[in-house]
């Protein structure tokens, strides 16, 4: 049996003595789509950045695909894609040039074909030769998704991936997430939008005060999720 | 690793070609400094060549300080640094890519500033050009290796424009002295006269580049 994509035990992170993650235990297997819910400041972004090896944990252990993430193993990083709050795309390069740059960093084979495919999928083909500086929020978000998918990652970490997307793009992303999950990819995404994720999630967790305060296996009903969320956040759970 | 270094160099130069933000600052400030030094010192024609090495290196250092920070500022826009650091490349690859970019930009600036110094300070550069180019390359390497590391270190600081020179200038003294001495020797007698000073520059370059490669990950990661 292969190692889980993510195995976190007692994961902590503080900023200037303020604990943002206060001991997160989390296991994510291939083929799972874990949705992280939580109020602002719950630590969702910090957790995703720690999982992406962009932040060092202050305590606890993290293993990605069985490898100790504190060593930032390049092989594990090659297997993960991360979309943060910002696109990580250079404003003075075009959309295509950004993808070409990242394709070189990830050593993507047949990069030109892969880039064309992703530009088509994101609907950015007509804007591919325009600098990212002139992209709308939604276009930049779609480009960020294309960037994260460029190398076919087995683990996708998405921080608020639906923000700024129009309804058609939301639907495309939901379809893609379902396809990737069925194909065996592990996905962790954070959101405030319970309704949009209820249909695609295999597990939902609520992060509150730096810990996983509530978790539920299986596809969850949006109404049940919303009620649980309210109960956890207001301390009635 | 080298594929990543080339990708970063190509990307940075492409952005620079479009925006000309670093280069414009480099060139304008470099030319202004040389003109100001020449006018302020107002040397007699016979004494002027003696001043050329110090004027050159003072101009390079102050100009370089201005432009080198820009390389990391652009990585902070849209959290591009996060995108690069999440990729499988070694942080040393990013360091070497940025170092290569800075050396190219310094060289472009020097291509304009050095002839200007030759004209204003009556320095005979033509006959010693190969040796002078070697001194400039080694000086650029030493300067840029340290400046790239410190620019990465200070890029998250609010007062980075002040912090970079304050932290960097004391450590640059060996390179600066080595560069001035080597340039003096080259202008006096070519390669042969500069051997000792070139050795000092090579030694500091090696120390600074190795330190940059080893320390960069600690500096750049949160």
Could you please describe the fold and organization of this structure?
The complex is a heterodimer of chains A (237) and B (222). Chain A contains 8 helices and 10 strands. Chain A has helices at residues 44-51, 74-78, 95-106, 111-122, 137-149, 167-182, 194-198, 222-233; strands at 6-15, 18-28, 33-37, 59-64, 67-68, 80-83, 155-159, 186-190, 203-208, 211-217. By secondary structure, chain B is mainly α. Chain B has one domain (2-220). Chain B contains 8 helices and no strands. The longest helix of chain B is centred in the last third of the chain and has 61 residues, at 160-220. Chain B is globular. Chain A binds chain B through residues 49, 52-56, 74-75, 77-78, 80, 82, 84-93, 97, 101-102, 104-107, 131-132, 140, 147, and chain B through 3-4, 6-7, 10-11, 14-15, 18-19, 74, 77-80, 82-90, 221-222.
Helical fraction of chain A equals: 25-40%
Q: Say how many strands of chain A there are.
A: 10
Using only CA atoms, what is the Rg of chain B? Answer: 18 Å
Mean residue pLDDT of chain A: 88
Radius of gyration of chain A from the CA trace?
17 Å
Low-confidence stretches of chain B: none
What structural class results from the helix and strand content of chain B?
mainly alpha
The average pLDDT of chain B is 88
Number of helices of chain A: 8
Measured by DSSP, the beta-strand proportion of chain A falls in 25-35%
Give a quick account of the main beta sheet of chain B: strands, pairing sense, barrel closure.
none
Question: Can you summarize this structure?
Answer:
With 237 residues, chain A is of the alpha/beta class. Chain A contains eight helices and ten strands.
